[in-house]
Structure formats: structure tokens, C-alpha cells
Design goal:
about 35% helix; two-stranded antiparallel sheet; alpha/beta; 5 helices
Length: about 160
């Protein structure tokens, strides 16, 4: 069981996940079951479903895949942030494109992490972002921030 003190508030954080892969959505369900500070707000396998869900229910935190069957997550993040400018967003991808962290930051996300990251790294990224920091992995997106070496990937973390 993973334990983490993700939120500094007493209320659990409501997480929404936009990802077309059922296995990844299942990982997030397991993560939420094992993390008392998180509850699932909603999950969507497509951008159209994500738009419909977001219009009905604004989560406290959004996780969004880069590529979905009906478009890209960068555009969706921009849309979501026009509706909820303070929404913390973490983007994820299974693809190893070194431009993704920069594109995620340009879209307004507060972080980017590879789907190959460990659950502990994912929890740390979520926690850092919830506390007002940023978490970008895999490029120079976090240049000037504190760097943590983990295996072949460098994670850049900036705290508030």
C-alpha cells in the first residue's frame, strides 16, 4: 500500500483522469484506493467525454494524457484552464518525446511525467503540484529548478 500526505487540507482532493488506455485508468483507480487524500472525480477515455465531464464537475486536480483518439491533450489543457484557471494539471505520456515537457508547460500544465515512472514518483509529482510547485521530467523544461536523478531520467522539481 502506498501512503502519502498529498494534500495539506483535510478534504480529499478530487482527481480527474483523461486517458484512452483502460490499464492506465485502472492504475489511477488503484492509486486512489491506496491514497486516503485522493478521491476520483471522473475518468474519460476521450477529449469529448472529458469536455462533457469538466462542464458538469470541476475536479481539484487533472491528469491528462498527451495523445487521445480525438485530439491532443495540450489543446484540452488550454481549454480546461480557460474554464478553471487555477486547476492543477499533470500531463502524462508513454512516448519519449523530449519536447513534451515544454509543450505541457506552454499549455499551462504544472507538470509532466512519463507513464514509465514509478507510482512513488507519480505521487511525488502530484504532491509537489498540489503544494504549488511544478514537476517536469525528461527535458530542460525545469531548467534552473532542483534536479533529482532517477535512473535514466532527470526529474525537475520546483516548489513554491
Amino acid at each position: 500500500m502506498l501512503t502519502s500526505s498529498l494534500s495539506t487540507s483535510h478534504a480529499p482532493q478530487r482527481l480527474a483522469v483523461v486517458d484512452d488506455h483502460g490499464i492506465i485508468r485502472g492504475v489511477f483507480l488503484t492509486l486512489i484506493e491506496d491514497t486516503p487524500d485522493l478521491i476520483m472525480s471522473w475518468m474519460a477515455p476521450s477529449l469529448n467525454e472529458a469536455r462533457a465531464s469538466l462542464s458538469k464537475d470541476r475536479p481539484d486536480f487533472l491528469v491528462c494524457d498527451v495523445w487521445l483518439p480525438d485530439g491532443n491533450g495540450f489543446d484540452f489543457v488550454r481549454e480546461a484552464l480557460t474554464l478553471a484557471p487555477d486547476l492543477p494539471v499533470l500531463m502524462v505520456s508513454a512516448h519519449n518525446d523530449k519536447t513534451y515537457p515544454e509543450q505541457a508547460r506552454a499549455a499551462g500544465a504544472r507538470g509532466f511525467i512519463s507513464k514509465a515512472a514509478s507510482l512513488e514518483q507519480l505521487l511525488e509529482a502530484i504532491s509537489t503540484i498540489q503544494q504549488g510547485g511544478q514537476w517536469f521530467s525528461g527535458s530542460s523544461a525545469g531548467r534552473g529548478a532542483t534536479a533529482h536523478g532517477l535512473e535514466d531520467e532527470v526529474l525537475y522539481q520546483r516548489t513554491a
